[in-house]
């Protein structure tokens, strides 16, 4: 199995509290469940190169015309997972990265490459969860991770919105005006995250987000993974990761 280590130096990072829109300092503080995390220069170029080689070997799925995809699974340490196409090197590298910077995330063994061509986009939405068995426990994913594999020179940003509480949702559903000073939808945008090679974006599944239009002559390619956030109470899951031998 390949062994690809994350960069040794502390990567540049931005963290946002999705409930308050406030900027959190650095990865030296504890990561909380409701944060959007943006990390640049996360991995050595060799890891990005290997991912692109893997991507080119996989069949292109055209069922979603605005965003073609390529899927693969990893089954290291889990005989119940069928139709695996890799031996675990992608998940192991990501897991090592999160452990190195004390980020409480497990990596699920289900991956997809997203390839946006000119004119490609993804409307504003939230993500669903996925389930996976670790040991005798069935856990559900909590976060989405995007690792950008190229520089998109025209459009293609991932637009991240503030999390809405139940009262906000009820107001929008009933067509009521937002609270004074709330303004329109754009006022709740956390950041428009540009597609920059070797940049990681992590956010909770329930975060509203949008894949902005890719302009003519540009392309946006990223690896999408699902993560599970664990705290000290659920630390036992870290001892039975499907990436351990």
Quick tags:
disordered C terminus; 3 helices; 14 strands; 245 residues; 13% helix; single chain; 30% strand; four-stranded antiparallel beta sheet; eight-stranded antiparallel beta sheet; Jelly Rolls; alpha+beta; globular
What does this structure look like?
It is a single chain. With 245 residues, the chain is α+β, with helices and mostly antiparallel strands. It has a single domain, classed as Jelly Rolls. The strands form three sheets. The protein has an eight-stranded antiparallel sheet with strand order 2-1-3-12-9-14-5-4, with helices on one face. Strands 6-13-10-11 form a four-stranded antiparallel sheet, with no helix packed on it. It has a two-stranded antiparallel ribbon with strand order 7-8. The longest helix is centred in the first third of the chain and has 13 residues. The N and C termini lie close together (12 Å).
Short description:
This protein has 245 residues and is an alpha+beta fold. It is built from three helices and 14 strands.
Number of helices: 3
How many β strands by DSSP?
A: 14
CATH superfamily: q2cbj1_9rhob like domain
Structural class: alpha+beta
Q: What would the average pLDDT be, to the nearest integer?
A: 81
| Fraction in beta strands | 25-35%
Encode the helix/strand succession as letters.
Answer: EEEHEHEEEEEEHEEEE
Bulk shape? globular
Question: What's the number of structural domains?
Answer: 1
| Radius of gyration, taken over Cα atoms and rounded to an integer in Å | 18 Å
Please report the distance between the alpha carbons of the first and last residues. 12 Å
CATH class: Mainly Beta
Which blocks of ≥5 consecutive residues have pLDDT under 50? 169-184, 232-245
CATH-defined fold name: Jelly Rolls
Strand order of the largest sheet: 2-1-3-12-9-14-5-4
Oligomerization state: single chain
The main β sheet shows up as: 8 strands, antiparallel
Q: Which range best describes the helical content: under 10%, 10-25%, 25-40%, 40-55%, 55-70% or over 70%?
A: 10-25%
CATH architecture: Sandwich
């Amino acid at each position: 199995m390949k062994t690809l280590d994350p960069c040794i130096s502390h990567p540049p990072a931005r963290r946002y509290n999705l409930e308050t829109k406030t900027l959190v300092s650095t990865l030296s503080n504890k990561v909380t469940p409701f944060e959007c995390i943006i990390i640049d220069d996360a991995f050595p170029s060799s890891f990005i190169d290997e991912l692109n080689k893997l991507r080119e070997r996989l069949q292109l799925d055209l069922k979603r015309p605005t965003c073609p995809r390529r899927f693969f699974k990893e089954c290291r340490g889990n005989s119940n997972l069928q139709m695996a196409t890799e031996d675990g090197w992608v998940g192991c590298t990501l897991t090592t990265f999160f452990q190195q910077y004390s980020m409480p995330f497990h990596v699920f063994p289900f991956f997809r490459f997203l390839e946006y061509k000119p004119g490609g986009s993804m409307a504003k939405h939230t993500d669903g969860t996925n389930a996976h068995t670790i040991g005798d426990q069935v856990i559900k994913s909590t976060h989405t991770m995007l690792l950008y594999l190229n520089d998109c020179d025209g459009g293609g940003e991932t637009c991240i919105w503030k999390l809405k509480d139940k009262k906000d949702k009820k107001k929008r559903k009933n067509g009521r005006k937002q609270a004074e000073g709330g303004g329109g939808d754009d006022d709740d945008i956390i950041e428009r995250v540009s597609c920059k090679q070797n940049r990681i974006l992590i956010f909770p599944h329930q975060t509203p987000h949008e894949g902005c239009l890719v302009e003519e002559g540009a392309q946006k390619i990223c690896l999408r993974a699902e993560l599970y956030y664990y705290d000290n109470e659920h630390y036992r899951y870290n001892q039975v990761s499907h990436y351990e031998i």
